[in-house]
Amino acid sequence: MVTGRHNKVIELLAQGQTVFSCGTIPNGNYDDIMALSRSAYDMIVLETEHVGFDVPTLRHSLLYLLNRQRIAEKGTLQPDVVPLVRIPPYTRETNGWVIKLTLDAGPYGLVLPHCDSVEGAAAAVRAARYPQVPGVADFAPEGERGWATSVAPHYWGVSPQEYYDAADVWPLDPDGNLLLMGIVENVRGIANLPDILRQVKGIGAIWAGSGDLSVSMGLRGNASHPDVEAAVLKILAICKDHGVPCATAVSPNADVATRVEQGFRIIMIPPARSLDTLTRGRQAVGRTD
Predict the structure, then answer these.
(1) In sequence order, what are the residues at sequence separation of 6 or more whose Cβ sits closer than 8 angstroms to the Cβ of residue 152?
(2) Based on C-alpha coordinates, what's the Rg of the chain?
(3) Per residue, what are the HEC states of the chain?
(4) pTM above the 0.85 mark?
(5) How many C-beta atoms surround the C-beta of residue 280 within 10 A?
(6) Angle, CA 273 vertex, CA 268 and CA 274 arms, to 5°
(7) From CA 82, how far away is CA 107, in angstroms rounded?
(8) Alpha-carbon distance 158 to 167, whole Å?
(9) 3 domain-assigned
(10) What is the pLDDT of residue 2?
(11) Is residue 289 part of a domain?
């Protein structure tokens, strides 16, 4: 059974905790995915934006993340390491079919590249939601996701009906278990971020993407440039103003405690077999679970 939420990451964010994510792991990198299933990470981001988008491979990647020993020890179906998938299309491309096929494989959320417009963000939310019952408080934006009941409910360990109830986007549905995290990684995204967060309640987190942001600013990949850092902190400030968790990526030798003190709620750590950065981050926030 599931005690509390199906999605541990949403549970931690709702409690005001800091989430530590490994990201990104190429879809199909089974050995590393299996090793990470035994780690203390809260989340993993499976990468399909810059590698091949292949649904059968994604299904296998998700299966390799299952850890039966952890499930037995916890006595719950809630995964210890929660899988999200970074999809290929930019959010403004509104490719709902990619969102549909990805969610039908069973992940607990999506990472949305170049989330830079209200229209694109709203389209992503609609594509991720099943049609809602008319008249309910969270009806809008009305869901468009097609009803496929085989793989995702099986992966979550629930019936199709239970999956329908659980697999809505948070915090639009306060009890939802799907996390949509938009990456703000260009100057247009920063300009539009206040409107996105004010008008699109289904975007549950924002990732301040310094790499592409540096290119957008004419700095050609210099993600450590002071102007890029200032832009990243501006994204963080906007997220704080709207009560939306903000994510940032850190280098293996980064001062993780500083990022936590600044207010970042999701810390994205590069994949590595050595977990020193993760250990330091968890120590910085007093996590012992």
Answers:
(1) 103, 104, 105, 106, 163, 167
(2) 18
(3) CCCCCCCHHHHHHHCCCCEEEEEEEECCCHHHHHHHCCCCCCEEEEECCCCCCCHHHHHHHHHHHCCHHHHHHHCCCCCCCEEEEECCCCHHHCCHHHHHHHHHCCCCEEEECCCCCHHHHHHHHHHHCCCCCCCCCCCCCCCCCCCCCCHHHHHHCCCHHHHHHHCCEECCCCCCCEEEEEEECCHHHHHHHHHHHHHCCCCCEEEECHHHHHHHCCCCCCCCCHHHHHHHHHHHHHHHHCCCCEEEECCCCCCHHHHHHHCCCEEEECCCCCCHHHHHHHHHCCCCC
(4) yes
(5) 16
(6) 80
(7) 8
(8) 11
(9) no
(10) 52
(11) no
Burial 126-150 (b: 16+ CB within 10 A, else e): bbbbbebeeeeebeebebbbeeeee
152: closest CA among 83, 208, 205, 213? 83
- Burial-class residue 2 by CB neighbours within 10 Å (0-12, 13-18, 19+): middle
Rounded-to-integer distance, Cα 161 and Cα 184, Å: 34
Query: Rounded to an integer, what is the distance from CA 272 to the centroid of its chain?
Result: 19
pLDDT, tens digit, 9 for 90 and up, residues 250-277: 987 778 999 999 999 999 998 876 677 8
For the stretch 39-95, pLDDT in tens is: 999 999 999 999 989 999 999 999 999 999 998 998 999 999 999 999 999 999 989
User: 269: closest CA among 257, 256, 258?
Assistant: 256
Q: What size, in residues, is the chain?
A: 289
Number of domains present in the structure of the chain:
1
Residue 146 lies in a domain: yes
Locus of tokens 């990805």: 102
Domain that holds residue 104: 8-284
Q: Which two tokens stand for residue 282?
A: 């968890």
For residue 172, give the CATH number of its domain.
3.20.20.60
Does residue 1 lie in a domain region? Answer: no
